[in-house]
Design a protein that fits this description.
Strand order of the largest sheet: 2-5-1-6
CATH architecture of the domain at 2-6 and 27-49 and 76-111: 2-Layer Sandwich
CATH class of the domain at 2-6 and 27-49 and 76-111: Alpha Beta
Order of helices and strands: EHHEEEEHE
CATH superfamily of the domain at 2-6 and 27-49 and 76-111: Dimeric alpha+beta barrel
Strand content: 25-35%
Number of strands: 6
CATH topology of the domain at 2-6 and 27-49 and 76-111: Alpha-Beta Plaits
Structural class: alpha+beta
Number of helices: 3
Length: about 120
């Protein structure tokens, strides 16, 4: 079964994190990524740009319209997401709890209920 893990953030949170601690935090996250890639359970790990770089794309009268985003009016936004393929929900919970940032912030865990075929 596949699962989506999400970490939320906001600019205030990132600004309060001491600059000298970022290299170690990134190294810990990369070790986590490597560990679960090697087991075959981590399919992808993606860090997103700051919310000020998000765009909203709509179609109006058949033409694309692009405006600044994100859509939700909130200071929290998705900072990173991870795609897992695990044998059970309990295993996905274990991996989520093993994420380095889980000691500071909660990690959301979502079961993926549908996957569209990509080989058509």
């Amino acid at each position: 079964m596949k699962y989506l893990l999400m970490i939320y953030g906001n600019q205030e949170k990132w600004d309060s994190f001491p600059a000298e601690e970022w290299p170690e935090a990134i190294a810990q996250q990369e070790a986590f990524n490597r560990k679960y890639r090697e087991t075959g359970e981590l399919l992808g790990a993606y860090g997103l740009s700051d919310a000020v770089n998000a765009k909203l794309v709509r179609r109006e009268n058949g033409a694309p319209t692009v405006t600044d985003g994100p859509y939700l009016e909130t200071k929290e936004y998705i900072a990173s997401f991870y795609l897992l393929d695990c044998e059970s929900e309990e295993r996905a919970q274990h991996i989520a709890a093993d994420m380095p940032f889980a000691s500071k912030e909660p990690v959301e865990l979502w079961p993926i209920l549908h996957e569209s075929a990509t080989d058509l």
